[in-house]
Amino acid sequence: MNLIEVKNLRKDYATHKAVDDISFVIPRGSIFGLLGPNGAGKTTLLRMITGIFYPDHGQILFNDRPFDPERDIQSIGYMPEERGLYKKMKVGEQTLYLAQLKGMREKEAKEKIKYWFDKLDINTWYNKKVEELSKGMQQKVQFISTIIHNPSLLILDEPFSGLDPINANLIKQEIFDLSKSGTTIIFSTHRMEQVEEICDRIILVNKGKKILDGEVKQIKHDFKQDLFRIGVGTMPNFAQMATWHFSIIKQEDHAYTVKLSEGSTTNDILMHFIKHDIPITYFQEILPSINEVFINKVQEMEQPLN
């Protein structure tokens, strides 16, 4: 079941196409990565999904119905990269105000504020003005303000900006917990290692077009290059390593990175080492990182046609 279905979405500006015929689905309870270089169309996509912009063409389905901002906006929590906290307001007052804007009653909102302030250990900030807080502290307040009304769709744009490693891990665990409880999450960032660690699925856009879409594990598998790392107990001599089954890409201390030749299998690699009495300490396939896939696909699109 999908919470979001985007069908042939398009948004044109005077000088360019910000979003050009993009379609994808976001399964319920998934963590969905929205990736792309600067100016790719990510922000425009997010603003259409949240009803800030209307598409020129195409359709967005939310809960299997055409997206209606007046009906569905209360089911969305959106934390944009550019923060929207009022610097002169006190933290507690502001969080309560934002919760009530999302339709929460005052009593319920105060109970939720206490719960989250306790959980993220920020009770001492309640009566401080936002401008007195560090960027990381403001980020935690913004995160609470975004999730306090239990949205079914949570959109996080660079949510770890300004956070130290300890607080980044704290927020990351909350993201995992929210996903496990059924919240669907759109996660937008330039940090590819975070995408690989957090996301179930991704879409990669560039120049307004979709250039990649799918499960993270499957994408890594689809872009593999038949590379393997082999650890050895003793370093063999050159004659022992010579074979047509693979080529040596890199030699390290007690390890080799090899590329499997066309027509050969991993068993051929292993049997070659066994045949020459070379003790194997480990054997692992090297899959590309999402960062490598990202760079390759964007560069591929940038190359001029012959």
How many domains is the backbone divided into?
2
Quote the beta fraction.
25-35%
CATH architecture of the largest domain: 3-Layer(aba) Sandwich
| Straight-line distance between termini | 43 Å
Morphology: globular
Integer-rounded radius of gyration? 24 Å
Largest sheet descriptor: 6 strands, mixed
Structural class: alpha/beta
Helix content: 25-40%
In the predicted model, the low-confidence regions spanning at least 5 consecutive residues are: none
Strand order across the biggest sheet? 6-7-8-3-9-10
Annotated CATH topology of the largest domain: Rossmann fold
Number of strands: 14
CATH level 1 name of the largest domain: Alpha Beta
Instruction: Give the averaged pLDDT, no decimals.
Output: 89
Q: State the order of secondary-structure elements, H for helix, E for strand.
A: EEEHEEHEHHHEHEHEEHEHEEHEH
User: Could you state the CATH homologous superfamily of the largest domain?
Assistant: P-loop containing nucleotide triphosphate hydrolases
Instruction: Give me the number of helical elements.
Output: 11
Keywords: ATP-binding, Nodulation, Nucleotide-binding, Transport
Domain ABC transporter: 4-232
Organism: Chitinophaga oryziterrae
Family: Belongs to the ABC transporter superfamily.
Mind explaining what this structure looks like?
The longest helix is centred in the middle third of the chain and has 16 residues, at 165-180. It is globular and about 75 Å long. Helix 3 (91-101) crosses helix 4 and helix 3 packs parallel to helix 5. The strands form 3 sheets. A 6-stranded mixed beta sheet has the order 6-7-8-3-9-10. It has helices at residues 42-49, 69-72, 91-101, 106-119, 135-147, 165-180, 192-198, 216-222, 238-241, 266-275, 290-302, and strands at 2-12, 17-27, 31-35, 57-62, 65-66, 76-79, 153-157, 184-188, 201-206, 209-215, 227-232, 246-252, 255-260, 280-286. It starts with a strand and ends with a helix. The chain is 35% helix and 29% strand. The protein folds into 2 domains: 2-221, 3-Layer(aba) Sandwich (Rossmann fold); 225-286, Alpha-Beta Plaits (2-Layer Sandwich). With 306 residues, it is α/β, with parallel strands linked by helices.
